[in-house]
């Protein structure tokens, strides 16, 4: 099955290879030594969810059609996120003057806790940010690069993670093989790990399972699949909780992870936060949540992009 998927992907790349607009690429952050890789995820359809009785919120299994998009080969690392987090650090490391829009951008409050939770930063995924914080990082990146980056929808994440397979994992159903592809409880030593060290899925995505959970754009609704539109579905985030995260993390057991498994954000992730209202930027008890970027093949209008980035955060009391 994996060999077939790789063969199909090779054909896909040969078809689009002459189209410079839809190839794998490296995104440099101008004026800095920081860069990250993006791979194209082809447009297509798949059956989303599962009909496992143990997880009723994953059903009913239903067909979804998606436009093409690029996705980050790995989760956003501290090297990139810290440039957004700390303007003084960005000024110190950037070789060119900051654009006025970048200079005036509202940024996260510097955390009063060690948001690495003692696990380190070098080459490791940035963690602990809220969904709002993740979206504002995308805004900063858009202003820096001119490319529209956003969070994946739940459907995009599942489609990309499965890479054409309808099994429990993109590599099949054998739980014992998960350690070859993911940092989980049994092999992580209780910590996040450097990205890109495990075997990627056939579409070039590293750590799509494990290491850290990844934000999606969707509001969590256990009944959404029963009424989901077929084309490019998204359940808009209109409430603060719960929102969908995917993929499992470094402290997840193998049995807790699958391509279709849905997890949800929780106000418990801010219980230690003494502020009223609580921080719109940080979850001081969520060392397991991070970001993976998406860039749609068909970029929205400037008005749509601004509407995506400019939504006000919902107060969290």
Structural overview:
With 317 residues, this protein is an alpha+beta fold. It has a single domain (2-298), classed as paralog of FGE (formylglycine-generating enzyme), CATH 3.90.1580.10. It contains seven helices and ten strands. Strands 1-2-5-10 form a four-stranded antiparallel beta sheet, with no helix packed on it. Strands 8-7-6-9 form a four-stranded mixed beta sheet. A hairpin with a 6-residue loop joins strand 1 (25-28) and strand 2 (35-41). Helix 2 packs across helix 3. It is globular, with a radius of gyration of 19 Å. It starts with a helix and ends in an 8-residue tail after the last helix. Mean pLDDT is 93; it is low at 1-19.
The CATH superfamily name is paralog of FGE (formylglycine-generating enzyme)
CATH C-level class:
Alpha Beta
Order of helices and strands: HEEEEEHHHHHEEEEEH
Mean pLDDT: 93
Low-pLDDT runs of 5+ residues are: 1-19
Shape: globular
Number of strands: 10
Number of domains: 1
Number of helices: 7
Sheet/helix structural class: alpha+beta
Query: Per CATH, what is the topology?
Result: paralog of FGE (formylglycine-generating enzyme)
Strand order of the largest sheet: 1-2-5-10
> What distance separates the N and C termini?
49 Å
Q: Specify Rg, calculated over alpha carbons.
A: 19 Å
Largest sheet: 4 strands, antiparallel
How much of the sequence is in beta strands? 5-15%
- Summarize the amount of helix as a percent range: 10-25%
CATH architecture: Alpha-Beta Complex
Summarize the structure.
Mean pLDDT is 93; it is low at 1-19. 21% of the residues lie in helices and 14% in strands. α2 (78-85) packs across α3.
């Amino acid at each position: 099955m994996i060999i077939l998927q790789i063969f199909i992907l090779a054909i896909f790349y040969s078809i689009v290879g002459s189209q410079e607009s839809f190839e794998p690429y490296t995104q440099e952050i101008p004026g800095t030594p920081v860069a990250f890789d993006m791979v194209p995820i082809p447009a297509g359809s798949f059956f989303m969810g599962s009909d496992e009785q143990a997880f009723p919120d994953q059903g009913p299994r239903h067909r979804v059609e998606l436009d093409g998009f690029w996705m980050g080969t790995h989760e956003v690392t501290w090297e990139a996120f810290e440039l957004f987090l700390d303007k003084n650090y960005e000024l110190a490391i950037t070789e060119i003057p900051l654009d006025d829009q970048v200079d005036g951008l509202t940024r996260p409050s510097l955390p009063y806790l060690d948001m690495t939770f003692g696990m380190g930063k070098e080459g490791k995924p940035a963690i602990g940010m809220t969904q709002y914080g993740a979206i504002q990082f995308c805004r900063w990146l858009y202003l820096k690069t001119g490319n529209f980056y956003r969070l994946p929808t739940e459907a995009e994440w599942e489609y990309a993670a499965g890479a054409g397979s309808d099994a429990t994992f993109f590599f099949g159903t054998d739980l014992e093989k998960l350690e070859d592809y993911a940092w989980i409880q049994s092999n992580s030593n209780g910590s996040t790990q450097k990205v890109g060290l495990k075997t990627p899925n056939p579409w070039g995505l590293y750590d799509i399972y494990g290491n850290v959970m990844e934000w999606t754009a969707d509001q969590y609704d256990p009944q959404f699949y029963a009424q989901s539109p077929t084309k490019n579905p998204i359940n808009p985030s209109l409430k603060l909780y719960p929102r969908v995260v995917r993929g499992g993390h470094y402290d997840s057991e193998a049995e807790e992870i699958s391509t279709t498994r849905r997890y949800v954000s929780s106000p418990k992730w801010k219980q230690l936060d003494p502020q009223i209202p609580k921080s719109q930027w940080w979850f001081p008890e969520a060392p397991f949540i991070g970001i993976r970027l998406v860039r749609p093949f068909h970029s929205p209008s400037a008005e749509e992009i601004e509407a995506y980035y400019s939504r006000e955060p919902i107060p969290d009391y």
